[in-house]
Amino acid sequence: MQNNNQKKVAIELININKSYQKGSNKVVVHDNFNLSIAKGEFVALMGPSGLGKSTLLNLIGGLDLPTSGSVIIDNQRIDTLSEGKLSTWRAENIGFVFQSHHLLPVLTAQGNVELPLLLTALNSKQRKQHASLALRLVGMEERAKHLPKELSGGQEQRVAIARAIVSDPKIILCDEPTGNLDRKTADEILTLLTTLNKYFGKTIVMVTHDLRASEYASRVINLEKYIHDSKQNQLSAVEVNS
Amino acid sequence: MNIFQLVWVNSFRKKTRFSLTCISVMIAFFLFSILAGINHALTSNVSSNNQLRLLTSHKISLARSLPINYQQKIAVIAGVESVSYASWFGGFFKDETNQLAVLAVDHNSYFEMFDEYYISKLQLEQWKKTRTGLVVGQAIANKYDWKVGDRVPLNSSIWMNREGSFTWPFTVAAIYQSADGASGEKQIFFQHSYFDKARAYARNTVSWLTPKVTEQADVDEVSQRIDKLFVNSNGATRTTTEQVFIKERVQQFVDMAMVIKLVVIAVFFTLLLIVCNTMVQSNRERLNESAMMKALGFSSLFLIAQVYLESFFILALGALFGCMFALLCLVWLSQLFANFLPGIAIDNSHYLSVALLVLTAATLCSLLPALTLNRLTISKTLGAKA
Ligand SMILES: Nc1ncnc2c1ncn2[C@@H]1O[C@H](COP(=O)(O)OP(=O)(O)O)[C@@H](O)[C@H]1O
Ligand SMILES: [Mg+2]
Q1: What is the pLDDT of residues B317-327, one digit of tens each?
Q2: The Cα angle at residue B265 between residues B261 and B268, in degrees rounded to 5
Q3: How many domains are there within chain B?
Q4: Is residue B50 one of the residues assigned to a domain?
Q5: Residue B100, in any domain of the structure
Q6: What is the Å distance from ligand 2's center to A116 Cα?
Q7: What is the CB-side half-sphere exposure of residue B181 using CA atoms within 13 A?
């Protein structure tokens, strides 16, 4: 958290505690967790299942709130926003790509990509243009008129990425975006994400099990090790102080 | 693309389910509208050209007869122009399945008063001279292929004649037409004097009298005057306008207002169940997409509005078609029952109730999905798969 002083910080998680109530049991997922991601980074978040990777992504994207601690994105604290404000904030600042694309089956690729733009002030012609541009960026302009069921898994994921970038968010959050894809298609998707990161300056946080992801990401966080190391640091800090 | 297009494509996502639901809604509103149309005929005061004609019957029951001399007694009451009378023959031709509306009427006055039956002067005169003559509606004459001069025996389920038979000999003497077409040409008339002399019992009585008031007279006042005259006798009367009389007879069979209320309630709950079920189901199938839309920044309100509009769309479409078919049917029914039950129609207030029903049902049907959508946690829903 101290190594990014020179660079501008995009994402900052400070003293995050996150626990779920499961019946009478309290499941602690994150305990005093800290993380800082600089603008323009492409972070691959790895580690075994159940460790809280998706939870972290949801916290960053404002899909979930921490039990305590602060989530600061672009110098704005978002965990204190009301649900409505958070919704609007999400629409403007975050693009999501999930393992399952969750495209609306009744809309064409073009329609699906246009969907988030309904929340903007753009008129229908502008919405069309923006959506077409996003589809071209992911190489799907020729499939604009196709319904999701007429597309392959990789193509669907491309459309989902187009939908994530169409409102030009600065941050893209991906939860196992290649989890359902074969090697070749997965590589294509990862290349696409790299392009978005390198040439369009998007900050990307990607949860993945894909070992090859490190070839694409600018920084790989092994969550298990990361948590262990920061615990050690905290302990030594306490020792120094006392 | 906008929310309406989204609602449109989402509605037709499961075409079979959409159609079936829509058809149920249609049937419900069809029934509702048909009943409302009939109720309109029963409750509204239909203006017609025979507002001057009254109907005086026994106070207790139409099955009880009145003395024939009431004709003279009523005729002298102020405001009464003329009085005719009729008796119910309870007729059928050959066997009981061929029921006929046969009336014995005062041949001197009846058709002068009931001028909606078109009879040629010649035939009318002929009938008045023929003791056993029948005046037959054109539709009935066509049905049984009867011509003037034909000898036709008719049976009565009520009246025995002096020969001890329930079969009465008649001769077709005249055929009448009606402006209402076939539906108004289904009655048969014969001379009351023949009836009265030939029947084995209850002579000098009539089933009901039909006083006609003068143009200037107050119908209610005259009615009261008539009933007052007989109030303390065995033959106490009840006098109403012809219209009211017809309506009351129909209402004897069914309490229409009650039936309509029950049907509306039944229809409404069926509607709710069917449309609710459809909405809950389709909402459940789409939870992932809804969560995704929430993640994209759509508010719960947007998603709820979508569900509401979808419920509204399916209900409004069904209601529209239901009302349209009912309207067509009612036009047909009103022609069919032009004489029997005039005034079958839908008035504008019915469309208001339909609109209110649609809006209320749409609201109630969106309630459960709205709760689900409002509680929907994005991370949990998407996390289940991601
Ligand atoms: N909505 C929730 N309610 C209760 N427990 C949850 C919820 N979401 C996640 N968890 C729990 O939190 C832990 C971390 O989950 P998650 O962040 O999905 O892990 P990962 O993505 O690393 O596999 C798991 O033990 C999971 O059961
Ligand atoms: Mg996960």
Answers
A1: 999 999 999 99
A2: 135
A3: 2
A4: no
A5: yes
A6: 24
A7: 6
